[in-house]
Amino acid sequence: MDTVEVKGCIRVPNKKGASRKLRAAGSIPIVCYGRHVDTISATINPADLVKAISTAYGPNQIITLVIDDNGKEIRRDVMVKSVQRDPVSRRILHADLYAIDADRKVLVKVPLRLDGKAAGVGLGGKLRSAARDVVISCLPKDIPTEVVFDVTPMGLKDRAQISAVPRPAGCEFVFSSDFLVAEIIPPRS
Question: Which CATH number fits domain 4-99: 2.40.240.10, 1.20.120.80, 1.10.10.10, 2.170.150.40?
């Protein structure tokens, strides 16, 4: 996975008024934290963040955050932990970024795509998707853009559980119960 670089400047955490002034000036406040690293409060251009998470990986995109700390450069590989948006305009107001470690597994939510035409659909059944995404544990370099499940062999009344979905290389599914992913609903008589 390629990383996307986002540049910013250090900021002194203040009250709400300072954040409003930052937003009016075209920047947003962010907080970057992680395991065994100091927490950084900074400002970035919201367009840069939107561009970074608009890739195929979405919010799972690894971002190289470059912060200017009064002439000293701080670089961290981060992932978006949460984004606060304006409820009406959907503009980004604030972002929390989590510093990742290249050799430590992360938990990410990845879209699940059902591929193919099920045999049961050809017999009049209807394919029902029961899950839109799955939670995966993997190293940051192994994060897939999506998980694909082939439904072609599924007949009428067949059900597929998460345990039947093939795992991408280097990834493990994280689930507490073997939940339903897809099923073929027979036609009503």
Answer: 2.40.240.10
Strand-pair partners of 103: none
Radius of gyration of the chain, Cα coordinates, nearest whole angstrom: 21
Closest CA to 164 of 177, 180, 175, 176: 180
pLDDT digit string, tens, across residues 135-176: 999 999 999 999 999 999 999 999 999 999 999 999 999 998
pTM: 0.83
**CA neighbor of 2 nearest in space, from 184, 168, 178, 140:** 140
Tokens of 138: 């993997």
User: May I ask the CATH class of domain 106-185?
Assistant: mainly beta
How is residue 154 annotated by DSSP?
A: -
